[in-house]
Prior knowledge:
- The protein is α/β, with parallel strands linked by helices.
- Helix content is about 45%, strand content about 15%.
- Strands 3, 4, 5, 6, 7, 10, 11, 12, 13 and 14 form a ten-stranded mixed sheet that branches.
Amino acid sequence: MFKKINFSKRYSLLLAFILWFLTFSFILRIIFIIWQYDEVSFNLFTIFGTLLTGLFYDIGTISFIAIPSALYYFVFPNKWIGSWLDKTLVWFFTSLTIFILVFTFFAEITFWDEFKTRFNFIAVDYLIYTHEVISNIQESYPLPVLIFGVLAITAMILFVFYKLKIIKNTFHSKATVKDRTIILAITIVTALFFSFFITNNQAEWSKNRYNAEISKSGIYSFFAAFRNNQMAYSEFYTSINNKVAFNIIRNKLSDKNSKFKSEGLSIHRTITDTSEQEPSKKNVVFILVESLSGSFMKEFGNKENITPFLDSLAQKSIFFDNLYATGTRTVRGMEAMTLCIPPTPGQSIVKRPENQNLYTVSNVFKSKGYDSNFFYGGDGYFDNMNAYFGGNGFTIYDRGRGSVLSDKIKTTRNNINDDEVTFENAWGICDDDIYTKMLKVADAHYKNNTPFFNFVMTTSNHRPYTYPDNVIDIPSGTGREGAVKYTDYALKRMFEKAKNKPWYKNTVFIIIADHCASSAGKDEIDVANYHIPAFIVNFPEHSNQKVNKLCSQIDVFPTFFSLMNWSYQSDFFGKDVLQSNFEERALLGTYRKLVLMKKDQVMILSDQKKQAFYKWNKVDNSLKPLQMNKTFLDETISWYQTADYLFTNKLLN
């Protein structure tokens, strides 16, 4: 039977196509291993396991891709084999599929260059936001050369098939019903096996993250991410009794200034200022800076002098030098800063349905009489930003490239007009332009005697790393260092302009990164690549200090509210870092791994209800396994289980 299948010439092209795909996938895997030669494990067993696991997932991937061909060969009548219809259909769809797959291989290389991972939920997002992504590709890579290269490789593959008479055999051979049935059955059974019994997570067999990622198949990973963008905590992660979890977190959030409203499954409480000082009503400019890793600053050891202004600001502000981002995406930073909540598994709340009318920091500002405004230099449709901010009390200022807000979102959307733009790339207008727009809006609020909370999201520190020419000494578009230096330059310019405003003395500026520029490492979690700077600027000089307590993005606004001497309602998981009894900890993760870090101990929760406990060496950024600590584990579970419970059950409103 198998001999007959192997030499069935009608299936020559299908079998050659499968062999080609497996070969190219193997070559791509070798490229990644060589690329990350200083990070991957070259242990013989590990390398063999990486390649063998990769082949296994490649077989699963090609089984799905081959189903249309197997079906075609099954139903197409023998008497029409070799007809113009048969040749047209086979040539067209074979050429198109090879072109798409070759392009995908190139896309995997560029994606790896940016994220050091196979396709994941970020790639799924990129498929949705086509304008930004296509523009970014056009501005970052020589697209005509890339397309020509893909076409040339596709033509070369087809030429090889032609010269080996593979295509000729396909059009001059018949297949029995038995052969057709067996080929179709093998293809479908293989695909069903991978659908129901194999998960993408099972490819992560190696403790070395790079080996685990290289073991995956990019296409298979993409569709796995597409299916699992939202993950129910109780289904995927280790859980404890909800009441126990809430008791642990309520205890962590309790202090002399907090009074819980009710017992049970809630963290809602009243925060009462006990300073006996008058509440402040300073304006607030909050700037969430794209991809500003702590490692870019001289303050943290960088030698390139690309953040001179921020380094100077660290000496004359409330500067958090031991603060960690909650995630690796902009939407995670937005979620952490507005909701003060740990990262829940799957997609950020910013991108989930039914995320309007939540209790965010804008509610606190609104209770004090402030107007809240959100500024973004691109189209806020990207990453669902406009829907999230518009649905949670912010007026929108964005580029408005054509997307329309849902009628359910009751907010005002204001376009940033062409005459307000001096430079623009795929992601939006340059930082200098978005700050200029923000200052103009602040002027209008001051004129109307309305205190303002302006939330600005920057875009310049992002591939393609382009910015206005001749403003810094690094040419535009040459790399990350230039984009960081331009980011620093634009912030300095913003402060220079703001200092001439009548509202400046009564305005506080909060500057923090959304996430680091990179989060990839050989371990499960690369702790160092979550370290970000944060500044609170323009409080009285005696308030300035360097805060070296280990803390999180979710703590910044609770600390700020305390500095303002505000009493307010809170559903926030963050706390005032400046309190003497603040318990140091950081909460961070990916869309699948959830982490609690305290001092040098790191607990990681993974889907499939796994957990791991490590000692973190800050010097070499390595993780060393520790014996499991039940108390630490229960606390880690509690932070994430309660956060997920509150959102899922609509208790964050």
